[in-house]
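URGENT: need a sanity check before tomorrow's submission.

F., can you look over the ABC transporter ATP-binding protein record below? I want to be sure the sequence and structure line up before it goes out.
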Amino acid sequence: MSNPILTTQNLTIGYQTSSKNVRCVARDISVCLEAGELVCLLGPNGAGKSTLLRSLAGMQSPIAGEVRLLGDDIYKLAPSDLAKRLSLVLTERVDVGMLSAYTLVSLGRHPYTDWWGKLTPEDEAIIHWAIKSVGALHLAARQVRELSDGERQKIMIARALAQSPMVMLLDEPTAFLDLPRRVEIMQLLRQLARETQQAILLSTHDLDLALRLADQVWLLTSEGILQVGAPEDLVLSGAFANTFRSEGVEFDIFSGEFNLHTPVRGEVHIVEDGIASMWTIRALKRAGFQVIKSKNDLSILIELISNQKQLLWKITNSRSVNIYNSLYDVIKYLNLL
Ligand SMILES: Nc1ncnc2c1ncn2[C@@H]1O[C@H](COP(=O)(O)OP(=O)(O)OP(=O)(O)O)[C@@H](O)[C@H]1O
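Structure tokens as predicted:
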């Protein structure tokens, strides 16, 4: 059953660049964020992802149209009411001085505390739960300025969680993180969306992770059009390939990966199956060879020979047979043919 939390109607976003001129970034956006869903906002550099997030967070007035949070016009909500319903996590490193991670997370309770910022036992329990939810209890006493990017990102997410919002917006939460940390943060956000029934929208350049984890993708094109659907819908419609098509790079609908256009240097046949063969095929493709999984005596044939000690590649062509013990040497040899 649909449970919309945040909706937009004919939203047009952009900037007033002078008293007469407006720079329109994206137009006519009518979408909704549902409870319990993780939505990834994708698009090329400069498409308008941050502008859209700021507009949805009520930080930037739209050029036209409206944003409603549980039915209320977001731009008319009192700041404290807005803060109880929506939290925004930005990527920029903010200087938080000597704050401990716990104190930073506790600031998320600000909309609920009294004038003095006194925390009740209930506030303390929520702060503890938020830190535990992101797996950061061991970081609670540490100074934020001493944390790594990934650790700090978890604390920023915990702060947003402590706000007990219904919607969480995150601008590139995985920027600057290594691959395992990016996967961890994305999985964490998906799990949080499920468990807390919050709607979570994040912008990212991690196309592969978004394809694997998002319930819905919002794809913002360079022309300012927002296309919405399950990740696979956007792949099948060609929207994904069209949006990210650029010189030298192409989205491969079969593998779901981006491939570099490499001029074809020749054809190679391979007969083995399995993991070593799969990585051999990748190496050959990277080097510009077209790989065919069958035997052909007239062309170059690669066979994998594995024993308990090592893996060998046997290359047979019309003139010679050579054996190598690394893919690096295989490619070097093929490049000379
Ligand atoms: N304050 C501003 N005034 C005028 N134009 C702006 C302003 N901030 C951003 N823009 C322009 O709006 C467009 C969208 O920028 P935005 O930062 O939202 O893109 P983005 O999709 O988040 O990009 P990236 O992936 O590179 O972070 C860009 O053309 C940018 O130059």
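My own read: The mean pLDDT is 90. The radius of gyration is 25 Å. If you see anything odd, call me.
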